[in-house]
Write a structure and sequence with these properties.
By secondary structure, the chain is mainly beta. It has three helices and 28 strands. The longest helix has 16 residues. The radius of gyration is 20 Å and the shape is globular.
Length: 357
């Protein structure tokens, strides 16, 4: 009887997590955006920060991650209220409780604890940011599956949502032990809304090429079950509501794929993007009632201006903020209405912006 109840509970959970093929398309251009609100930032000069690539607000701390380097400076911990640099964490290496690369950071709800993800080693590491211990508290590798997962984020303290690249299926929802909950979405759906360059036809494209063109970080909010992708080289925003089982696609402000040619690497189709690679969206944040996406729209080798678009969960635009410092990653304190970012300038560091909705 107990086993039967467990099976029934699992079936109900899978049904509740199934995301229907409901891709309501919403196109926009620059003219459709709300009037710009200029935000002036305050840039800090925290020592130790060299080449930051991520930022996370957790409890009383701000955590800044570094790009690949050989130093034991993977994570920088800052006291938010005192505006004081505390210590670095993350021993460089591939041994037990060491970290080679911090690709992303997540708050799963446990006090003073964060999880990092190393996409190269498929390794999740848990850190206690309330102390200066270099090694992680816990770790595990993403399970061996018949799928290749790139981006991944948490949907609870025991389940993960990952992006797929080696087939037409777009997302995978699994437990951290590897139990498959479901897969959903199709990269084919994204092709419906874009004109292909150079006369290519949709049937000529393999899934790994298409998924490369639509790659994006997955950001989410465990408490409300809303997750978002903001395309890196193709300008789209996908809003996923896991609890309601639906998704919405917002396309713009350019509405075009980058120009590319089909090439092959180790037998796999790959897009060779022609000309300078323009970054469209570089990051996103899911709040309690709205989402924020960071728009660049420029070649990163040039001086660029960062803008943050705020949308509701139905894809309607609420605000457009223009920042006076270029940033590539950010997090928001919605209660205090503060944007924390890491700058993309010659001397990168932490910058803050105050905003009013």
């Amino acid at each position: 009887m107990k086993n039967l109840l467990s099976i029934i509970a699992l079936i109900l959970f899978l049904i509740s997590c199934e995301v229907r093929k409901e891709i309501n398309e919403n196109r926009f251009t620059q003219k459709d955006l709300p009037e710009k609100k200029l935000l002036k930032g305050f840039k800090y000069a925290y020592e130790g920060i060299l080449n930051p690539n991520g930022i996370l607000l957790k409890d009383d701390y701000l955590v800044v991650s570094e790009r690949n380097n050989i130093l034991d400076l993977k994570l920088h911990v800052i006291d938010v209220s005192k505006e004081e640099y505390l210590y670095a964490k993350g021993k460089d290496g591939i041994g037990p409780n060491e970290v080679n690369l911090v690709y992303s950071m997540d708050d799963v709800g446990e006090k003073n604890m964060i999880w990092t993800y190393d996409v190269e080693q498929r390794k999740f590491s848990k850190f206690d940011i309330s102390n200066s211990e270099l090694l992680s508290e816990d770790e595990f590798r993403s399970p061996e599956l018949d799928y290749f997962i790139t981006h991944a984020t948490w949907t609870s303290d025991s389940t993960l949502l990952g992006g797929l690249v080696d087939g037409w299926e777009k997302f995978i929802h699994i437990t951290k032990e590897g139990t498959l909950l479901n897969t959903f979405g199709s990269w084919r759906d994204n092709l419906e809304y874009y004109e292909l360059p150079r006369g290519y036809k949709k049937e000529e494209l393999d899934p790994n090429l298409v998924s490369s063109l639509f790659q994006a970080k997955i950001r989410g909010n465990i408490s409300n079950g809303v997750y978002v992708l903001a395309g890196i080289t193709t300008d789209y925003i996908e809003i996923i509501d896991l609890k309601q089982g639906k998704s919405k696609l917002v396309i713009g402000p350019v509405g075009k794929m980058p120009d590319f040619e089909i090439t092959y690497h180790l037998g796999y189709q790959m897009p060779a993007i022609k000309g300078p690679v323009k970054i469209q969206y570089s990051d996103a944040f899911v709040g309690e009632t709205s989402i924020f996406v960071l728009y660049v729209g420029m070649d990163l080798n040039k001086i660029f201006t960062s803008r943050i678009f705020q949308l509701d969960f139905d894809g309607n635009f609420l605000n457009q903020f223009e920042l006076d410092y270029p940033i590539l990653d950010f997090v928001i304190d919605e209660k205090l209405k503060i944007i924390y970012g890491v700058t993309a300038d010659k001397e990168p560091n932490v910058v803050t912006f105050k905003y009013n909705q």
